[in-house]
Design goal:
Number of strands: 8
Number of helices: 0
Structural class: mainly beta
Shape: globular
Strand content: 25-35%
Distance between the termini: 20 Å
Helix content: under 10%
Largest sheet: 4 strands, antiparallel
Number of domains: 1
Order of helices and strands: EEEEEEEE
Length: about 130
Amino acid sequence: MIADNCACGLSGNVLEFHDDEPSPGHPEGQHVMIYSPPADKSALSPSINHIFAEYDIYADLPLANGVLYRPGWSFYPYICPQTGESIWSTRVDRSQFYLVPEPGCSREVESATSFGVPADCDLISLVYEV
């Protein structure tokens, strides 16, 4: 249950990043990255020139525990410089992590086209790192 009275639009498709065993919280040193299902850019209209993700987040990330997050993107194809093969890219976007000093909700918008995702890629996936 979310212990917050804000007007979060959270419903269905909710992800949870914590481990309740043996006690609630994030285990020391936990590092988790999740990836959204790939979006097929070739299915989009050629007139679309901006790709972004918009979502609601409820966060209880105590700074005292060193819990931070950062969103980013992965795309395909990325041409591996060593082998020349087409692979998924590593995470691209801003390098800084973010903190949430008090538990609460917010609406987030992350731009893919502003932070290193090439316009000519075929597939794109949102990466969320905690």
